[in-house]
Design goal:
heterodimer, A: alpha/beta, Glutaredoxin, globular, B: alpha/beta, five-stranded parallel sheet
């Protein structure tokens, strides 16, 4: 499954209603490192479809959500499970490093 | 398509900034099938593409009268190298062994072997060396204005440094911050005149000359900084909620300690006018061996030199 885009309006509903762990990638058009990890997150979304959901939130368009979670640097990825932030990853990382962070949350159903 | 690790390649290039990628273009065109171990994604300059990945407009690279965005320039460099057959691995080299030939380079447990190696690992941002930096990086302390500037809309922030990078960052940050104070330890900038004038002309930029930052305060985010006047020793507090460090760079040569000759500041030593290191068959180019010029164009130029040096050396080895 591909990554999904979140907006201020769809955010709470999507996070609250997600059966799978969901990683929200806070990004912006002018952020180089954000662009670096975009294809990596796309791959993870496809390869682990059914185990984890990857969502993206553009901080330029939805700064209120970024502020709510005290995002001060991008990319920041927040991993939500059961509606709560369970992990915060700040800065671009390699695919293997990201998978290590997500590993314990990957849903066993596939 | 990729050569299995057990084979010996003609050339491996470590690092993928302007130097490494220019070396890749030239060695690829010389039919040397270069493998570029380009680095891992990260939010620091230690990433594929190097330092320019963290900048916005690059106005001084020749050939672009309207300027070009740093990341776009590096995307173009990489595409050009790929076009001529350079192969890429998006990983960081973890260990090297140049004690015998073929040379060996590792990415964790994967071993790669080559007849020649071009080192172009570049440089990374210097930090102040304060304990608070570990705690506050990403929480108001940053080395990347383009990454984090957005979050300081309406804030009063400080930029530490006196070169082109510091002024460029400060100028960029005025798009978001209400006030940017440049804290510089001397009474004049080392930046280019044109950049200096931009700082002087910008109403949102204030300059605190002759000051160093001696402490960054805040439990879980930056609340203020302590600055010391280098001429009088007097200290004072600057109420800023963001601090950007732009005081210079140090070469990424940890991998080569005890292997390649380097000067006291860690820059690799090369035979003047060439890319030759103290080990025959190992060449160095770009910021990793240059503490004088450190420009994208000089890095690119030296990358070309390294490729030609490597090509000629390989030819001499094959009789």
């Amino acid at each position: 499954m591909a990554t999904i885009n979140l907006t201020t309006n769809t955010f709470d509903e999507t996070i609250g209603g997600s059966a799978l762990p969901i990683v929200v990638d806070f990004w912006a058009e002018w952020c180089g490192p954000c662009k670096q990890i975009a294809p990596i997150l796309d791959q993870i979304a496809e390869e682990h479809s059914g185990q984890i959901t990857i969502a993206k939130l553009n901080v330029d368009e939805h700064p209120d959500i970024a502020m709510r979670y005290q995002v001060m640097s991008i990319p920041t990825m927040l991993l939500f499970s059961g509606g709560d932030v369970r992990r915060r990853i700040v800065g671009a990382k390699s695919k293997s490093a990201l998978l290590q962070e997500f590993d314990e949350f990957l849903s066993s159903s596939h | 398509m990729s050569t299995p690790p057990s084979d010996v390649r003609p050339v491996i290039i470590i690092g993928s900034g302007p130097a490494g990628l220019t070396a890749a273009i030239y060695t690829a065109r010389a039919s040397l099938s270069p493998l570029v171990i380009e680095g891992e994604p990260s939010s620091t300059s230690d990433q594929p593409g190097g330092q320019l990945m963290l900048t916005t407009e690059v106005e001084n690279f020749p050939g672009f009268p309207e300027g070009i965005m740093g990341p776009e320039l590096m995307t173009n460099f990489r595409a050009q190298a790929e076009r001529f057959g350079a192969e890429f691995i998006t990983e960081k080299v973890t260990r090297v062994d140049f004690s015998e030939r073929p040379f060996r380079v590792w990415v964790r447990d994967d071993e790669y072997r080559a007849e020649s190696v071009i080192v172009s690992t570049g440089a990374r941002s210097l930090m102040l060396g304060l304990e608070a930096e570990q705690r506050l990086i990403g929480h108001g302390l940053s080395t990347c204005a383009t990454c984090d500037g957005f979050f300081f809309r309406g804030h009063e922030i400080a930029v530490v440094g006196g070169g082109d990078s510091a002024i460029e960052e400060a100028t960029f940050l005025t798009k978001f911050a209400d006030k940017v104070t440049i804290v510089h330890r001397r009474d004049e900038f080392r930046a280019s005149k044109i950049m200096q004038q931009r700082a002087f002309d910008n109403p949102k930029i204030e300059i605190l000359w002759n000051h160093t930052v001696t402490e960054i305060n805040g439990a879980d985010k930056v609340e203020s900084i302590e600055v010391t006047d280098t001429t009088s020793g007097a200290t004072s507090t600057l109420a800023v909620t963001g601090v950007f460090i732009a005081i210079g760079h140090r070469p990424n040569t940890d991998l080569f300690t005890g292997v390649l000759d380097m000067d006291e500041t860690g820059y690799l030593e090369t035979v003047p006018g060439s890319s030759l290191t103290n080990i025959e068959g190992v060449f160095a180019c770009g910021d990793v061996q240059d503490h004088t010029y450190r420009q994208a164009i000089t890095a690119a130029g030296s990358g070309c030199m390294a490729a030609i040096d490597a090509e000629r050396w390989l030819e001499s080895q094959h009789g």
